[in-house]
Every structure is written in C-alpha cells, then in structure tokens.
Write a structure and sequence with these properties.
Largest sheet: none
Order of helices and strands: HHHHHHHH
Strand content: under 5%
Number of domains: 1
Distance between the termini: 83 Å
Shape: rod-shaped
Length: about 240
C-alpha cells in the first residue's frame, strides 16, 4: 500500500464534513466491503425478523383455533375430514398425521394394538420434529450475524485505523483535524456491525424461546391425543 496514495485518499476528508455518506465514500475499499456486507446482513436480519414474526403469530392463532375445535366435542372423524386435505399449521399437521396412521392401521386389520399405539406415537414424534425444524429455519442466520457481526465490524475498524495512521505518517501531520476524520471513518464500520448484530441477537433469543414454547405445546397436545387414542384402542381391543 503506497503511503502517498493513502494520504491522497484520506486527507480530503475534514473534521467539518463527517456525514455518514462521506465517511463511507472516503473509506478504504476493504472497509467499504465490510460496511456493505454488514448492511446487507442487517437487511437480511430484518427480513427474517418480519417473516418469523408473522409465522409465529399465525401459528399461535392456528393452534388456538384448532384446540378450540378439538375440545368442542366435534368428532375426530369430522375434524380429520376437514383438515386432512391441507393442514394449515403445526398442531393440525400433528393431528392429521396421527389420524392418518390410525385409519390406515385399522383399514389393514392390525394384529397388534400395542404396535398401533407405538406407530402413532412415532408418527407424532416425527411430525413434531419436522414442524420444529420448520419453525427454526433461518434462525441460524440471526445467530451468526449476532455473534460474528461485531467482529467483522471490528476488522473494518482495525483496517481503517491502520490506513489512517499511514495517512498521518505520509502527511506528517498529527493534528486532530487530520486524525479525527480517519478514526471516525474506521469506527463507522464497528457501528454498522453493532447495528446488524444487536437486533439479530435480541430476536434470535426471542424466536428461540418462541420455538421452545410452541414445541412444548405440540408435545403436550401429542401426549393428550395419544391418551385419547390409547383409550379407543383399549375399547376396540
């Protein structure tokens, strides 16, 4: 890196002109790359946040409506016919999967009712795992941005400070008017890293807690439904 080129690229920035656009425009290309990458990551984070917020809200409403219908006294066969074509949420998918295995087994004249109960429980476990995986989709992106964002921003800051020191050495001027703009430009990368990382960390924790709550709710319903089917198996046995 040529010190003369560094000085020419940095010195035009004065302490009286420290707008965000100017800080970005006068940054070294490596620092610019870091800033652009972090801005893209920040937009991606907010897109995931909006998508997950809508998804979890829809899932909660769907579970509430399904539980109200399930415990209203409506027959299981009627509820299954209503939902079998297209289960709209996790709990409905769990119910449909269990009922489908129940009906398939009885249509085939099962030899072992104990085996039927085990198969139904296994089907529900697999369905819960699939639904939890769907709810957790893209949460790893939030975790990655939340943990790596500040360090990526710090890398841009370190590089920017190195460039500023080289420009100071080239210009042989250590006045605050020369030093401050370069330092501000370098710290801007860390600020963008924090802007991306802080919401990512907050919403990752929030969504991870929400996934856990919904998984527990699904497991609770699976236990209750398994008990209902177990009683019916005993009656038919």
């Amino acid at each position: 890196m040529n010190p003369g080129d560094v000085a020419q690229s940095v010195l035009p920035l004065t302490s009286s002109d420290l707008s965000l656009f100017t800080l970005f425009w006068h940054a070294h290309w490596i620092v610019k790359t870091v800033m652009v990458g972090l801005l893209i990551a920040s937009v991606w984070v907010w897109a995931i946040v909006i998508d997950k917020t809508v998804l979890f809200a829809r899932a909660r409403r769907g579970m509430d409506a399904f539980e109200q219908a399930f415990w209203s006294g409506q027959s299981l066969e009627e509820l299954y016919r209503t939902l079998s074509a297209r289960p709209a949420h996790s709990m409905a998918a769990l119910f449909v999967a269990a009922m489908r295995e129940w009906k398939r087994s009885f249509e085939g004249n099962p030899r072992s009712f104990a085996g039927l109960q085990m198969r139904i429980e296994k089907v529900m476990e697999v369905t819960i795992a699939r639904e939890v995986e769907r709810l957790e989709k893209r949460l790893l992106v939030l975790a990655t941005v939340g943990s790596a964002g500040p360090f990526i921003g710090l890398f841009g800051t370190v590089w920017g400070i190195m460039t500023s020191f080289q420009s100071i050495a080239a210009s042989k001027n250590t006045s605050l008017a020369v030093v401050a703009p370069g330092i501000a430009e370098a710290l801007f990368a860390t600020a963008i890293g924090l802007v991306a990382a802080i919401p990512a960390t907050i919403f990752y924790n929030k969504f991870a807690s929400e996934v856990n709550k919904q998984a527990q709710r699904l497991e609770g319903f699976a236990d209750e439904f398994a008990a209902i089917l177990s009683r019916q198996i005993d009656e038919r046995g």
